[in-house]
Amino acid sequence: MNAVALLVGTKKGAFVLRSDRSRESWSIDGPLFKGWEVFELTADPRVEGKWLAATGHFVYGSCVQISNDSGESWQQVEASPAYSKDAGFELKNIWCIQPSTAEEPGVYYAGVDQAGLFRSEDGGHSWELLDGLSGHASRSEWMEGAGGLCCHCVRIDPKDPDRLWTGISAVGVFRSDDRGKTWQLRNEGLPVVIPSKEHPGIGSCVHGLALDPQNSNRLFQQNHQGVYRSDDGGDHWQRIENGLKEKQFGFPIALDPHDPDTVFIVPQESDEFRHAADGKLTVCRSRDGGDSWQPLRNGLPDHCFTGVLRKAMCTDTCAETGVYFGTANGQICYSRNAGEEWQILPFTLPRIFSISAITEA
Amino acid sequence: MSDHLQSESVRVDIALPSLLQSHADGQSCIPVMASTLQGCFDALFAKHPLLQRHLFTESGQQRPHVLFFHNEDNTRWLDSLNIPVREGDTLTILQAVSGG
Questions:
Q1: Measured between CB atoms, which of B53, B60, B95 is closest to A61?
Q2: What is the set of domains in chain B, with CATH numbers?
Q3: Which of A269, A279, A318, A333 could join A273 via S-S bond, C-beta 3.0 to 4.6 A?
Q4: Residues A263-274: pLDDT tens digits?
Q5: What ipTM does the predicted assembly reach?
Q6: Do B53 and A85 count as a contact with CB atoms less than 8 A apart?
């Protein structure tokens, strides 16, 4: 079937939107996990029909759930990520689930609040804490951001699964070169929002992190205090804001899979307001790897005083790239031509936490 | 109650909130056989292990916004869950009214 599916995680359940490749009209199914928060709903590109969800509730805690039939049925994982009794940390939410590369079938990572990273080697059915991160030497000085002390993303080198990056708010970026056993801070060049007394490499608030799938030395970051690029695997970062407001605030950052020099962000006014500047919802796009940016507003609304959360933006792999983002007010905006024109889907969902796209062959 | 009666298992009905029923085969009420409140939880988790994670934290503490009522009594008032139960008792699991 030639189709696109959007997997949408929200404050109250998950939703699945489907269209053919024209992406002109969409159907909607859901809510899955009615009443539960869904921080992540993702498909494993290595296994047809395998989906994973990070579900939670402020009363009842969080867990991983697995479907092997594209969301038709779900199994809660009894041995979901959990800290040991003596770890000294509490698992508040599971923020992300990331399948590893084709070289590591059955391997997944899960990032959690309070900040830590777990690895599964058996298809997501059991999880082991990577205590080189949660027990990092700088841990005693980690400070949480507004969303908690969350380990919210994992990026894996598609050519070398030994090498991965993670982002923790408001601590910064870490890189591992040994499949997550040990971790090094990678924040040189980034602004510090919460200075540390003993560990000057922490206190940078990474909001969104994108890895160039064709050049794994290149990463892009939407930071609390601006937009940045690294060309050396995170060793150094440089500000890339030509065409943006200085210290541009925002959360998500996404790349065009056909052309990773094409980068999308959704600017917000500031950390005090966290909505579109002057109510004019805008996507900014770079075509040159972040060297310059252009605003895209064709079809996006005025009088829109909402924001977009860090995981609520994605791209598809159709011939003409689709770009999608969901707002904190439950609207989904999308473009079928890499941001040139935008439409709003006629659905009002709960607060949107995450969006990912499946483009079926 | 005699020691003999305390050790005898009786039927207790455990009522679940709707959000947790999907983790217990869709049941809203689960009968268990136990002699103490702790035994009721042990029996519940033996039947439906997924519930333990949602009612207690990793460190074994009752989640702060979860309430357990043994008949009319909030179990937070108890020093211990090792108290006897009687035939026909109920154990109701509730979400605390948190905010709103």
A1: B53
A2: 3-95 (3.10.20.30)
A3: A269
A4: 999 999 988 888
A5: 0.88
A6: no
